[in-house]
Amino acid sequence: MDTPAAVPVKLSVLKPATLLLFSFFLFAFSAFPQTQLDAHQQLAHDIFKQLVDIDTTDQHGNVTTAAQAVVDRLRAAGFPAADIQLVGPSAKKMNVVARIHGQGSAKPTLWLAHLDVVEARKEDWSQGLDPFQFTEKDAYYYGRGTSDIKDGASILVANFIRLKQEGYRPAGDLILALTADEEGGSANGVDWLIKNRRDLIDAAYCVNLDGGDANKYNGVRKVLTIQAAEKSYADYQLLATNRGGHSSQPRPDNAIYELTHAIDNIGAYSFPVHLNEITKGYFAGTASIESGQTATDMKALAAGTADDAAIARLSTSPLYNSLMRTTCVPTMITAGHARNALPQRAEANVNCRIVPEETPDSVLAQLQKVANSPKVEITIVKDNGIQPVVAPLAKLRPEVVSKVKDVTAQVFPGVIVMPEMSTGASDGKYLTLAGIQTYGISGLFDDVNDVRAHGRDERIAIKDYYDGLEFNYRLIKALNP
Predict the structure, then answer these.
(1) pTM of the entire structure?
(2) Do residues 441 and 404 make contact, with C-beta atoms less than 8 angstroms apart?
(3) Which residues are paired to 440 by β-bridges?
(4) What CATH number belongs to 39-229+391-479?
(5) 107, 13 contact by CB (below 8 A)
(6) pLDDT of 455-480, one tens digit each?
(7) For the chain, how far is it from start to end, CA to CA, in angstroms?
(8) Right CATH number for 232-380 from 3.30.750.24, 3.30.70.360, 3.50.50.60, 3.40.50.300?
(9) pLDDT one-digit tens code per residue, 340-376
């Protein structure tokens, strides 16, 4: 049947009321574009929304509710009950582990994200946004966890379902683990699984979506990193004690004076530059997107020829400074027992992020030397009596790097791939210490000038989410042929 030719509409002949209505609809559709989603994108969207709408904070949330929602999704998609495990130490802190069976000719690979999120208060967010309500607005998805890391968790669930329904059988098993208490709390899911059910997650290596950066610069995608190292967390207590006395008779041995003297000395100190193969690769790669003196300094740093002036220039950036060395900073101070008394006790917490190949004890020795305050006692803070442990580097597997570059070129043409050491901490530490080398590879882009994870109005661009979904799908298949 012939299709009649389109008839142009002359706005001049429309009645005022009709013109007003016509203009309204034009505005509505231009201001709120309708996203047309494929079936697998719609599935990911629905899982994403469901997870964000569930409060999984340690303070008043429930991780198990989100884990059970994932279990229900997997069962509905055809995963046998035997291939889905809901396990953990307590009713509110359960982890979900699922498996797609391969052909048995290669070791399994583990794909990881966490379900818990940091605290968020509605009154702190912009009007119309609830941190525990998934909201689509202005080409973004808003809500706590949209960038850390329920975007990654929902992508993994959606892609495992897609692969299962396609009948995909790689050489080795695919393992999905979504866990509790990465952001804090007393029941870290990865640590619990290693100690209690390692059989469920034992793998040749792990890909952690809560690691590695995909960076936009002023909206332009430029860098995707493979996180193969991370700094380790350690706290140190600084304690000054004194007999105290009446505040009307000040004395120079005041406990607060002693403590602040030590803090000032530590604050003025920079640990020596300590690079490794990961950070050298990072600075060499970043030099290609920097320019001028910064690019020159980075090239020299990566080559081991940077002078003191180059290091000083790079150290003005908090990020680059943190990647070059161990860093320590005071985070809490408590002192005194009465407003009208000399303090008998003054203490501070100094938080350190330690580069691989240094140790909490070596950092302690340096802090004691730098503080130069014999009356201030410095000790390592032990969690439940356990001293912090520094995670080793993960050895970069050539086949992993090669496949990441291939898939990046397909989905994000022009984006460069480089290794990275995280300045923070992730669950990858537990796995690497247990002999399961872990690589942070997210494919979920964020703008370096507008990072909102853990903060107000957390969000991810809608396009970045669905492109990240496709990137992860292709990467799973590339790494598990």
Answers:
(1) 0.88
(2) yes
(3) 208, 227
(4) 3.40.630.10
(5) no
(6) 999 999 999 999 999 999 999 999 99
(7) 48
(8) 3.30.70.360
(9) 999 999 999 999 999 999 999 999 999 999 999 999 9
